[in-house]
Amino acid sequence: MKTHFILFLFGIFTLSTIAQNNVGINNPSPDPSAVLDVKSDTMGLLPPRVADTTVITNPAEGLMIYDLSSHCMRYFNGTVWSGCMGFFAAQSNWNCGDLLFDARDNLTYETVEIGTQCWMAENLNIGVVLTGNQTPTNNGYIEKFCQDYGLGPCEVFGGLYSWDEMMQYNNASPFGICPEGWHVPSRDEWCTLENFVDAGTIVCDGTTGLKGTDAGGNLKDTGTSEWNAPNTGATNSFGFTARPGGFYYPGTGFGGIGSTANFWTSTENAAFATTRGMGSGTAKMNHGSSDKSSGLAVRCLKD
Q1: 47-to-13, 44, 50, 67, 274 alpha-carbon distances in Å
Q2: Using omega within 30 degrees of 0 as the cis cutoff, is the peptide bond preceding 230 cis?
Q3: Which residues does the chain have with pLDDT short of 50?
Q4: The whole model's pTM is what?
Q5: I need a surface site. Which of 108, 153, 204, 257 has the fewest CB within 10 A?
Q6: What residues does each domain of the chain span?
């Protein structure tokens, strides 16, 4: 038995139907598998729009909202808010070297093919800027450090992220905060890049220090407008365009802008994580490790 009634929404009368335990709006025969079956050829369904999920007290597992800050749908899994849902599908004719569009915040990134790998040719810059003594937490938002807590440095050099924040608190997944179809490169994947661009052979055995001959120089952006002089060996001959965004150390603050480019890998090293870096005074690559609470740059690699 079906019961028809008039549903009054925002001053508009809409013919609705209850059939058993489900509801149809503009649909006299709602699908039996749907609690609510809405039909419209000219309008969409508008979910609740929230700028800050922390204002929702005790969210229920499965609760869904549209995040006005990240411009995407999110759901609560019972513990934390999910990352962005519903990224725009990659164009079928997209090729490495084309612009990468990140639908989460509408930013675009240059990309470059180096050997068999496809890299972002810019540092990732998604997220909310942390200020003062704030630290990133597992709260469903992507959070970043910007030199001196201002947006300007991040617009030039990208964001600086703690390792856990970059990995989105999931050590088993390399996806991290990278756009869909991209991931945080491992130590071995960085090694593949270094050995392709270096004049010699770089042994990636987990030891730290300056490595190789000219891999760092070949990956650094040229000139001294961003890099401090002398920017030794910089050729950017492969289009990687590494820029010296420096670092952030909790309790110490920011440093290294203009003199060092420091990148996380997804590879852990006990309580630390493996890093890669370039300096203004050398053409070699620096193999290092850093406390996971440090803020370093992120380059994403195509899956």
Answers
A1: 20, 10, 9, 10, 42
A2: yes
A3: 1-14, 87-90
A4: 0.72
A5: 108
A6: 2-38, 100-302
